[in-house]
Amino acid sequence: xxxxxxxxxxxxxxxxxxxxxxxxxxxxxxxxxxxxVMDSSGLYTSVGTVSYDALGQxxxxxxxxxxxxxxSSLDQLMIFNQKVYYEIDxxxxxxxKKALDTTFIPMQVPSDAQLVGQVFMGSSSSWGMxxxxxxxxxxxxxxxxxxxxxxxxxxxxxxxxxxxPASGWITVSTYNWVLGNTDPxxxxxxxxCAKSKLEKTETPETxxxxxxxxxxxxxxxx
Length: 222
What we know:
The protein has helices at about 5-20, 205-220; strands at about 30-40, 45-55, 60-65, 70-80, 85-90, 95-100, 115-120, 130-140, 145-150, 155-165, 170-180. It is mainly beta. It has an 11-stranded antiparallel beta sheet, covered by helices on one side.
């Protein structure tokens, strides 16, 4: 094979490799799962459940939080297309309505995300021993940054890590995802939220700072 032929073959191989490179993906439209959250200090941990509706751009997060020796819970409804979220306290039947920064929605890989690489979580030696995942990173508002891991098949979210100067590092791990939603009413605010007025803040909350808000409240009680 002559030199020109070799270059032609190499060009075909490189083009094929580029075409197969992972691209930012979108998660299934309706999902339910579990999650854990931990901040950089290790003093704040949270477990809970999350319901996600991509069609209506809504998310319901129920947190059960441990900060030191204090425990608390918080129910949060995030409505991305309205740029608002509700903090619901069922013990007091109270509700706060806050602005939500929707620049970054962690249930999808942003179109401007950069690929770090593709790896197996577990082992690739035999079927069923591992999961092929894509690692992404990018920037958040307020001088923040993030990294995220999504499965190659199905675009299932696995972990997010984010940093902002105000909130520090926070890591979210998810598991036990099930496709579909069992309760459409999950995305409707409770009746006692009807009178809630939008609170004025200097900067809107993000998904990550919203998750940390219950931790801040618990620390103030200590």
